[in-house]
Amino acid sequence: MNTAMAHPMTESPQERLAAILDSHQPSSIVTVSLNPIPVVSQWCKDHDCKLVEIQEQDPFAALEEIERVDMAIVADQLEYMSQRDGEALMGLLRNLHTDSMVAVYQPTLAPQKLRWPSNGFLALGCREQGHFAQDGRELNIYSYDLDNYNFERKWNNPRFWANPENWGKYWW
Predict the structure, then answer these.
(1) What is the pTM of this model?
(2) Residue 80: strand, helix, or coil
(3) Tell me: the pLDDT tens digits for 86-117?
(4) Helical ranges in 12-126 per DSSP H
């Protein structure tokens, strides 16, 4: 386990989100959030990045109008949706709109019946990028990147096959 993720981080959530943006350098971003995300707006202004903001209680119709983007950011949205609808939103973004996604989730903001389990984002192929806790509030940042969500396993190679000479020859 990454010990940096086990304890609250010293940087702010805004700094962590900006660092993720800096590492990906997207040229187009869609945000799905009931409120503006100032750090993303500022980053886009500073980096000549196209920004599409969806600020709808039900964002699905608005998503039908947008094209593919380099990155999607969901914040201040999932706390007010059922987990099923949240998973549908994240899946739609991941499958149709982008290869890279960030979710900012505040579990204590969500009503108990809408709260996601701690492994809910991991089940979608996301990785935890930060856990922040202060004054009884919590905020978690998760990311998904198609290029590296499925890590290479050391055992998945011809050396560990019963018939290594057949590696890559057959698909069943």
Answers:
(1) 0.81
(2) helix
(3) 999 999 999 999 999 999 999 998 888 889 98
(4) 13-24, 38-46, 60-63, 83-92
